[in-house]
Amino acid sequence: MASLCVLGAMLATCFLTLGWSATAMRQTKLTAVRQAPCPTHPLGTDELGRSLLARTLYGGAISLSLGLLAAGVAVVIGAGYGAVAGYLGGRWDEIMMRIVDILYALPYMLLVMLLTVSLGAWLEGWQLVGSEWSRFIVLALAIGSVSWLTMARVIRGQVLSLREQPFVEAARALGLPTRRILLRHILPNLIGPIIVFATLTVPQAILQESFLSFLGVGVQPPQATWGSLAADGVRMLNPVRFEWWLVAFPCVALSATLLALNFVGDGLRDAFEVRSTR
Amino acid sequence: MFRFILRRLLTFPLLLLAIYGGAVLLVTATPGEGLETGEKELPPEVLQQKRIAYNYDRISPVDGQIQPVSAWERYFWIWPKRLLWDGDLPAHQYEDWTVVEIMRSALPVSLQLGLLALAVAVMLGIGVGVISAAQRGRWLDHASVSLCLVGISLPTFVVGAALLIVVGLWLRAVPVGGWGRPTQALLPAITLALPYAAYIARLTRSAMLDAYAEDYIRTAQAKGLPEWRVLLDHALPNALLPVLSYLGPAAAAIFTGSFVVEKIFTVPGMGTHVVESINNRDQSLILATVMVYSVFLASFNLIVDVVYGVLDPRIRVGAKAT
Fold this sequence. Notes:
heterodimer, A: mainly alpha, 10 helices, B: mainly alpha, two-stranded antiparallel sheet, 12 helices
């Protein structure tokens, strides 16, 4: 419950202040560069004098929406694909899982980087949205489109052992159509894993984005996410001047949110899979 | 079982070909060859020489004219041949280095780091998971579950930076960077392993608890077996299946995740080459890196699948029935 509150509070503050933070995060103030937290700048300022409070709030909104978007993509593709492959079994399963293997065996970080760079070039070529947002969309799509593999595999594994269970056999013996068996008999048994993996995919997508930002392939400045802020902060770390606030605040926000997400996932898991709570 | 393995082995080359095709597609999706992205504009003669050196063009043996090389021939014949047979495929961004030389110097470092981290993650994860499940509901369980959540939730570069500052700078216990000595491998490996250890611990714990709800555990308990034997002999083998199926993705994540850790601890691995090659669209190096990692991870997945088949008869039967 506490984690739900944290999550709700985080979502509310990040998205409700978006109107202010979206402009404030870009205001540079060269007279107040790299300031430690003080009354005028509650979380301090970065190397261009931008308020870290505004940047953290704005970055949070971007991080969260990126994570949700990516997880949505991953869940839809992964659960559908895995359930169908696992249930059909045999040759279809073989072919569908071979495709997953192909994508799996691609080192996914390389894949996301390649996808981000090449898809980004395409999207920018179309000029549908600004280049900052095209990078955001591309990142969400790229991360989502590699994150569904685990989901598909887990769901497929579950279905594979589920379909050997007597109740599925009974449903088959009754002559129910495949779609009905999948939707009515198999899917309810999968809600647990789906929820657990969906709630785990959101923080993982946020984390992956932060890795990409750290390596320099993430969102493009002046766009910011928690990950890119923290990564910038870590890059600025040196033994001479210890600008801890640049690392600490984005990291605390990021970690608190991820923790809350994971806690909520656990709670949901316990709610759905009563068996495991014994 | 034998047919199961054979089938997997037969699809292996096809798999790699498909991966290569996809990688070529992605690499060629962006316009240009990445030759022109230097600091300054290249004179046309130099550019022409480069295009010939990288097989984008060639001098016709018949009339001595410069003619373009088709993408098919370049990506599917000349480059693979130069990489694997002649070993002289150059990398765009490092003028005098061949791809093979770069790989030879950087790849072993990355793979060592990855393998070390994977071993740490598996052992730590399963250990913590089993203890946690055995102590379920008590404080040790709560403590390890919370720690695992923290481990999963913290980005690698934050953990790495924290370890670097505390262990490296304040305690001066280990060198803060570089590679070669065991002490230098310690922090990177632990940093890289932690999130995956936490994830494996969670998986192990929940799978153990699931297994505990099964009838055969009650049977074992009814036989009067000591609790630790029920735990290790009856619950653990079944609980290991989800962990095993997670090993493939974990390996992929760890071996590519090492790029981040390498950057923090200045480990001379593939990380910088990979990021640079993608940013500079260094086609030959990107393709070679993707293929090397794919071969490695695909073989790893193959082994995991075979072991999975050995451990879980249900899967094997399903595969045979086809």
